[in-house]
Amino acid sequence: MRKIIAIFTIMLIPSIVFASTNGPDCHSWPMNMTEGWMKNSGIVDITNLDESKTEYLLLASEKKAKDLYIQVYHFKFYSKSGQSYEVITTSNSSSEECSLGGVNSYLISRSDINY
Question: Which of 27, 29, 63, 76 has the fewest CB within 10 Å, making it most exposed?
């Protein structure tokens, strides 16, 4: 019985750590800056994006100083024509201001949905 409890605890700990996030919810700043970056880089015309389908996940939020966090987000954007774009961003934020400096955006995947 102890082995089962130990295995269950070991399996549960990573999900608890991953689910706990510290710091502010500042996804809108890196999302907006990434859309501008994709437009300026010629990756996609942002008027063709279906913003209602945009997905995001906070991957990491690390406290750097008093009320200063570095945050890493994973975004998945969808175009109206069926393409998807996955981007990882890093940015600094605080509980008072989400736009503390620039946003680093990295396109990690670009795919087409062919029916």
Answer: 63
